[in-house]
Amino acid sequence: MRKPFKILCIDGGGIKGLFSAQVLAEFEEAFKTSTSGHFDLVCGTSTGGIIALGVAAGIPMKDIVQFYIDNGPQIFAQRWKMGKLGEWLFTLKQALIKSKYSDKALRNALVKVFGAKKIGESQNLLCIPAFNITTSTPRIFKKDYGHLNQDDNKTFVEVALATAAAPTYFPVQEIDSVQYVDGGVYANNPVLVGLTEAVFKGYWIKPKDKRGPEDYDGVQILSISSCKVPTGDYAKCKDRSFFRWITTLFDTYGDGQSKSNDFFINVIKPHLDFEIEIKRVENTPISCMQAEKVSLDKAGKDSLTILKGIGSIVGNNEKNDPSVIRFFRENKTINPSKI
């Protein structure tokens, strides 16, 4: 591949984004660099969208790690969920009354990190999936370029809240009189979103018969999962109500969507008229005891310690992989301020 279009993709997964941020922090430490400087396009969904926006703002990933550690317990109301009774009451609230959590703590934490920064100030091209419930259509927030002119004046905080508004977990978000929920309802793993953006209307990857020696001739994707927790199940009660499903439903659809995206990509790769390389970074299977402590909204001390520790192990192992080294050896080729 002579000139690759380089994409970073980060999965959704709630507080498990701490794992993803720690992996990237290990890469930054190993290569003495900023992630933003090595990717033309950054994609992220839900918690991955928050991390992607951090990358695009040029924030060191160690600071994003600290964001999760400092704010995770407040965002997910950890102090009120101590013991089974507290968790049960929050689940009851989620199933019958309103969203499990307020967005106040998340909004305040995001303002501390991003301030009033707007998408137009992004240091990378962006694709941040959300879902427009007003029209029931997917919505991808982007750094404006070419014919695009919708999102540069939106703030990082607005977009982060929209992509992370997981149904029943956080309130619906409204931007310019349009309502949004979490992009994880269709793109928890945003690899296909990133690949589509690379080829859309031939703007970056041109058709083969129109491709010149200075044009992009392929795509390289670094895909970072959130910490994978086993979601296999055996239903004793086959006629489950929503209340019985609620504690596992969102992990299940997120995991299923992520795995199906990987499958679709591998099937279509041989049929593309350009080269594509994908490096997927995932954790090795975690123990049963660890799995009991980790889920998308468990933000207690044990969970945070486990997620950061696994992220450190995986990051340190993967930093020696030649395909990872290749991403950080060469700089990005697109400067969004000049397009």
TrEMBL record:
GO BP annotations, alphabetical order: lipid catabolic process
Motif (GXSXG): 44-48
Motif (DGA/G): 182-184
Pfam families: Patatin
UniProt cross-references to CDD domains, sorted A to Z: Pat17_PNPLA8_PNPLA9_like
Stretches assigned to the PNPLA domain: 8-195
Transmembrane segments: none
Keyword Hydrolase appears in the UniProt entry: yes
InterPro entries: Acyl_Trfase/lysoPLipase, PNPLA_dom
Motif GXGXXG mapped to chain: 12-17
Active-site residues, as the UniProt record annotates them: S46 (nucleophile), D182 (proton acceptor)
MF annotations from Gene Ontology: monoacylglycerol lipase activity; phospholipase activity
Gene3D superfamilies: Cytosolic phospholipase A2 catalytic domain
Alphabetical keyword list: Hydrolase, Lipid degradation, Lipid metabolism
NCBIfam families registered for this protein in UniProt: CBASS_lipase (NF041079)
Stated family: Belongs to the patatin family.
Name of the molecule in the record: Patatin-like phospholipase
Organism from which the protein derives: Paraprevotella clara
Species classification: Bacteria, Pseudomonadati, Bacteroidota, Bacteroidia, Bacteroidales
